[in-house]
Design goal:
8 helices; f41 fragment of flagellin, N-terminal domain; rod-shaped; alpha+beta; 10 strands; two-stranded antiparallel ribbon; 6-stranded antiparallel β-sheet
Length: about 350
């Protein structure tokens, strides 16, 4: 077969273009520091990199979720630890008042101390994380616990002379003389509330405790298909209601009301029998707070372990991506120099080949 000058020229141009493409590709890799800059560079590895990229973004989101979860649980832990201290102080105080007190000043001091301890408990139960109340369940934009006074009559469901601000139908109610599970049925402004149950015998003007939250436990996904419960709801914690989990069945706020009433004050003598009955709830109440604290600590441990696993998994993916994408600068430099030499040689050979001879004029 006769090799024409046109065929030689086309072959030479093709080889030059191929050499130039290889040089450009090596230069691009050296400049970007990446082996793969577009899917056509390596379709199989490009698909793998896309999958790994999606997984790494997921791990980044899980890391963000874990940070928020830890912060929420740390707030839980601070509040629950404070409540545990309040219960210990209450037990210490009541150990000195087993049979009440015959000293009016001592009774008043004990009364005031119990009132303050209950207020501290409610303040801690209304702890906020950002603009959310951590013990309110799903209804966490309003303070979950309120304490109000009202006139309660034995055998009646009406509470009179009460500030209805912030109250709503369906809220749980507790207090001395109020049956367990009582909720607000309706509100008649400006100062009357109808309860779902009638007060028991002996009820008079009473301190009432209202829970505005619910029993919904907040969950955050900290790994693939791994939700983590982060909240301790106020009804389980202080009202002794709710299940899965249940920390206990003691209404701690009502227990404080019973203690305050039984201790008496400077004008009201102590009621030893009522005091003994109310004091029996102290140990279960303390255990209830302690159970919630332990549950929260166990959750924190699990989240810490998942955080370490999440970091390890992301580091593994980062290593895989690096093995695929990171270039060997020295190796590519040698290859680029070789391609440059080959390209220059090809250009020189083509120049010699394409020189005109006498035959071009014949």
């Amino acid at each position: 077969m006769r090799v024409t000058a046109n065929m030689s020229a086309n072959t030479s141009l093709y080889n030059i273009q191929q050499g130039r493409n290889r040089s450009d590709k090596l230069m691009e890799a050296l400049t970007s520091g990446l082996n793969i800059n577009r899917p056509s560079d390596n379709p199989v590895s490009s698909r793998l990199l896309l999958d790994l990229g999606d997984k790494m973004k997921a791990f980044d989101q899980y890391s963000t979720n874990i940070i928020k979860t830890k912060s929420w649980m740390e707030f839980n832990n601070t509040a629950l630890s404070g409540m545990n201290d309040v219960m210990n102080q209450t037990k210490s105080l009541m150990n000195t008042l087993t049979n009440g007190s015959t000293d009016p000043t001592g009774r008043q001091n004990a009364h005031n101390r119990l009132v303050d301890l209950k207020k501290q408990l409610i303040d801690m139960a209304n702890t906020q994380y950002g603009d959310q109340f951590i013990f309110g369940g799903a209804n966490n934009l309003v303070p979950p616990f309120q304490q109000k006074s009202g006139d309660l009559t034995s055998g009646a469901a009406n509470v009179g002379n009460i500030d209805v601000t912030g109250l709503a139908a369906g809220m749980q109610v507790s207090g001395t003389g109020i049956p367990i599970g009582t909720v607000i049925t309706s509100i008649t402004p400006p100062s009357t509330v109808l309860l779902s149950n009638s007060a028991t015998a002996g009820a008079t003007a009473s301190s009432l405790n209202f829970y505005a939250g619910d029993g919904t436990e907040r969950q955050v996904e900290i790994a693939s298909n791994t939700p983590q419960t982060i909240s301790v709801t106020g009804d389980r914690l202080l009202l002794g209601s709710g299940t899965n989990p249940s920390y206990g069945n003691t209404n701690i706020l009502q227990m404080f009301d019973n203690l305050i009433a039984a201790v008496g004050d400077s004008t009201t003598p102590s009621d030893p029998a009522a005091l003994a009955t109310a004091t029996q709830s102290l140990d279960p109440a303390s255990k209830q707070i302690f159970n919630a604290l332990n549950t929260n600590l166990s959750r924190m441990t699990r989240v810490d372990n998942m955080s370490k696993l999440n970091v390890a998994n992301k580091n593994t993916l980062t290593t895989i991506v690096g093995n695929i994408q990171e270039v060997d600068m020295i190796k590519l430099g040698v290859q680029l120099n070789a391609e440059k030499t080959a390209l220059e040689a090809s250009l020189a050979a083509t120049a010699k080949l394409s020189q005109m001879s006498l035959l071009n004029y014949l």
